[in-house]
Amino acid sequence: MTNDSIGTTDSRTLYLVCCAAAPAVRVADGVRAAQAAGWDVCLVLTPYAHRWLENDLPAFRELTGHPVRHQYKLPDEPDVLPPPDAVLVAPATFNTINKWAAGISDTLALGLINEAIGLRLPMVALPCLGAAQAAHPAFHRSVEFLRDAGVTVLLGEAGYAPERGGGVEAFPWTAAVAALAVPSRAKGATGATAVP
């Protein structure tokens, strides 16, 4: 599927990239919220999120209908996921936000979200970090860079503040999915490439 078909098919593919922050244990809630909004969801985990959720992978595969990816495939292995029409990074950690803004692709999750910027796909990031990390100057620079690159980064507007006692059940998956406004055609898009 190329970006020419965004919004014109019944099945739009969303890559839900899940990082290792406390709300990751409720990522199935995010999958269900996206499915309720009409998305075909593919789950991609960072290495530590994979470690946390490894026992749940069969249930996630059944829920999404797709394998759960967490590492790069070998060059001769086939793509097992359809190309994305949009990407949601949630929960997004301090580490992922800063590496993403720096263009570092040392994990599959980072490689996919860096590529998605180049493809100009609709992207939303919902960070989950403490007040001390949120006050770090690198975080603010990274958020500004990602927003300038077209990523919708939800901070206080999503209503989630872990430092104020927002537990994992309060993580606003539905708000993050709702922020994924998919245009009829992404500006300047040239089509999706193979999934690494």
Keywords:
disordered C terminus; alpha/beta; 196 residues; disordered N terminus; globular; 8 helices; Rossmann fold; five-stranded parallel sheet; 35% helix
- Report how far apart the termini are: 16 Å
Specify Rg, calculated over alpha carbons.
16 Å
Secondary-structure element pattern, one letter each: EHEHHEHHEHHEH
Share of helix, binned:
25-40%
Number of helices: 8
Name the beta content range.
5-15%
Number of strands: 5
Quick one: CATH class?
Alpha Beta
As laid out across the biggest beta sheet, the strand order is 2-1-3-4-5
Please name the CATH architecture. 3-Layer(aba) Sandwich
Question: What about the largest sheet?
Answer: 5 strands, parallel
Count up the domains. 1
In round numbers, the mean pLDDT is: 86
Structural class: alpha/beta
Shape: globular
Low-confidence regions: 1-9, 183-195
CATH superfamily: Flavin prenyltransferase-like
Task: Look up the CATH topology.
Answer: Rossmann fold
Overview of this protein structure:
The chain is an alpha/beta fold. The chain has a single domain (3-72, 81-178), classed as Rossmann fold (3-Layer(aba) Sandwich), CATH 3.40.50. The protein has helices at residues 27-36, 47-53, 57-64, 94-102, 108-119, 131-134, 137-148, 173-178; strands at 12-18, 39-45, 86-92, 123-127, 151-153. Strands 2-1-3-4-5 form a five-stranded parallel sheet, sandwiched between helices. The longest helix has 12 residues, at 108-119.
In short:
Helices cover 35% and strands 15% of the residues. With 196 residues, it is α/β, with parallel strands linked by helices. The longest helix is centred in the middle third of the chain and has 12 residues, at 108-119.
